Amino acid sequence: MPKEEKKSLKAKQRERQIKQQRAQQAYQAQNERNQKKKSQKFQVQRIFYGVALIVLVLTAYGVWQYYEGQKPPTIGGTNNDLPATGSAPNFSLLDINGTSVSLSQFDENVIGIHFMAVGCGGQIYPVTEYQLAQIKSVCTSYCGKGNESASFLTVAVATCENSALDQIRTYFGVTWPFGNDYADRVLDIVNAYVPYEIGDGSIVLIDKNFNVAQVFSGGVDANTLSSKINQLLEA
Q1: Which residues have C-beta within 8 Å of that of residue 222, sequence separation ≥ 6?
Q2: 92-234 has which CATH code?
Q3: Structure pTM?
Q4: CA angle, corner 147, sides to 141 and 148, nearest 5?
């Protein structure tokens, strides 16, 4: 009887060992499954975040392209070869109200040609906003005063279907001729004045002898503009 009890005790110990081994094996197997699941989940997350990053980059690029496309076009360029005579290239501009205006019809006045770029939906740069306000101030004193006065024309470059030129004219109170050089799909006016290194917001002043007298780039205030006009009127 004691011998059987001793064997029974050993059997129980063996059973406990077997159970512990099995439990350990089960734990290891579960741990391996968990590690495998984590690895798979990590791979899925990497793929997800990779795709999300690509989508984000493409979206950002698309937005950038859209807004770049809305911006005003570039006007003019740099060219140091000025025309030998200095005579102002003549041109005709179709005002946005449908009236054709020729530069030569103002040949007894000092003439200011203002170049401005307009983006889609009427987007313009700050230099143009500033310059339109300065021209309006000057034009109040000089425009429409007959001979021995000054006349202004704004030559816009708007290449989009809708550049809201009529809204711009109303908003800034433009009372002088205002038209789009690209209305005929040709930038003939801009190209004629490229030798004078015009850019967005540039004002080209033409004297009473129809010669280019001064080119203001980057914005010029009303006082400076008026002073130069007075000099040209008195010459």
Answers
A1: 134, 135, 137, 138
A2: 3.40.30.10
A3: 0.69
A4: 65
Q: Using an 8 Å Cβ cutoff, are 199 and 75 in contact? A: yes
pLDDT in tens, 22-54: 777 777 777 777 777 777 776 766 666 655 555
Query: Which residue is it, tokens 């015009």?
Result: 198
Q: Alpha-carbon distance 116 to 131, whole Å? A: 9
pLDDT recorded at residue 59: 44
pLDDT score of 55 more than 90: no
CA distance 166 to 28: 78
User: 102 phi and psi, to 5 degrees?
Assistant: -105, 140
DSSP-assigned beta bridge partners for residue 93: 101
- What are the extents of the domains in the chain? 1-70, 92-234
Write down the pLDDT at residue 193. 95
CB atoms under 10 Å from CB of 138, counted, come to: 21
Rounded Cα distance, 182 and 67, in Å: 21
The distance from CA 144 to its chain's CA centroid, rounded to whole angstroms, is 35
Helix (H/G/I), strand (E/B), else coil: 214: strand
Mean pLDDT of the chain, nearest integer: 81
Buried b (16+ CB within 10 A) or exposed e, 81-116: eeeeeeebbebebebbeeeebebeebeebbbbbbbb
From the number of C-beta atoms within 10 Å of its C-beta (0-12, 13-18, 19+), residue 160 rates as middle
Which amino acid is located at 165 in the chain?
A: L
Supply 26's token pair. 């089960």
Single-letter residue type at 195? P
